[in-house]
Amino acid sequence: MKVEFNGETININREQNIQEFIEARGAKPPFAVALNGTFVSRTEFPIVTLSDGDKIELLSPIQGG
């Protein structure tokens, strides 16, 4: 199954939920996730299962002044 993560195509060989997928990539909070352009709340990470062709965007806040 292929998904797109921050613009990069990634092959995953088993069904995963968003939490498993993000943790496997070593993401450190704080961050927000969009799946196919729609915000996904953190409470939904373990519930939402990825499908072939999904587009996942992980967005981290940028600090500055």
TrEMBL record:
<dbReference type="InterPro" id="IPR003749">
    <property type="entry name" value="ThiS/MoaD-like"/>
</dbReference>
<dbReference type="Pfam" id="PF02597">
    <property type="entry name" value="ThiS"/>
</dbReference>
<protein>
    <submittedName>
        <fullName>Sulfur carrier protein ThiS</fullName>
    </submittedName>
</protein>
<dbReference type="InterPro" id="IPR010035">
    <property type="entry name" value="Thi_S"/>
</dbReference>
<dbReference type="InterPro" id="IPR012675">
    <property type="entry name" value="Beta-grasp_dom_sf"/>
</dbReference>
<dbReference type="InterPro" id="IPR016155">
    <property type="entry name" value="Mopterin_synth/thiamin_S_b"/>
</dbReference>
